[in-house]
Amino acid sequence: MIHFHNLHKSFGTQRVLAGMTLEIPDRSISVVIGRSGAGKSCLLKLLIGLLHPEAGEIRVKGVDVCALRGRALNDMRSRFGMLFQGGALFDSLSVYDNVAFPLREKTRFSESQIRRKVHERLAQVGLSGIDEKFPSELSGGMRKRVALARALVLEPEILLFDEPTTGLDPIRVNAIHQLIQDLHKQLRFTAIIVSHEIPEIFSIATHVAMLHDGIVVATGTPDEIQASPNPVIQQFIHGWSEGPIEAN
User: Strand locations in the chain, DSSP E?
Assistant: First the structure.
């Protein structure tokens, strides 16, 4: 489905990606782990064309995203949905209008069609009947669910999650993970999740990749990653202060 090949990206003198290569299987739940600043969120921005690499290719079903501009890039972006780290809901809009926003911007659906699709998505994330509430009236977990409904409303093939459970307590973390897994079974999208929730995220992942020093140091199933003899991986997933990764 998605192939990152030999990607290089720097911000000034800070090198973030240094020849990173990674394949994302079709209809998988692929999780990218690594330290803060390792380039995980940068990878998502490169994938949807918000950033451009200095070198390398990103192919989605054979199409080089890095070569797209204008309408062709917008057409490619329509295949993606994204759940941002903080949810990125519009504070001045109701729940209904937040979820309806992409439909009004990107389609010519009638208001009755929009209403049906919004209510379908809200029901799928367990939030029926809260149309008129505003983000400030919702718990952190509910805001994440509304943001997920909005990300799904255009029925994307690929869904990107940038730290989807940041700021949530362990119970809500597990609830959001379970919801992602349930929706994936229903809708069969390809998911890429950037996460620090170790080991909880392993319970829903089908494919895991670890970024370190600008490259992917290992890929595999959750069991394979957890059993890896690589000391970098073991230190990261166990949170040890001593090891090859400097705790700074």
Answer: 2-11, 14-24, 29-33, 55-60, 63-64, 80-83, 158-162, 190-194, 207-212, 215-220
DSSP codes of every residue in 59-104: EETTEEGGG--HHHHHHHHTTEEEE-TT----TTS-HHHHHHHHHH
Plot region of 64 (φ>0 → left; ψ -120 to 50 → alpha; else → beta):
beta
Per the confidence metrics, is the pTM higher than 0.85?
A: yes
What angle in degrees, to the nearest 10, is found between the helix axes of 111-124 and 95-106? 130
**Bridge partners for 20 per DSSP:** 7
| Count of beta carbons in the 10 Å neighbourhood of residue 134 | 16
pLDDT attached to residue 42: 92
CB 165 within 8 A of CB 172: yes
What is residue 1's three-state secondary structure? Answer: coil
Q: Helix, strand, or coil here: 114?
A: helix
More confident residue, 191 or 87: 191
Judged by DSSP in three states, 171 sits in helix
- What residue type is assigned to position 185 of the chain? K
Residues in the chain: 248
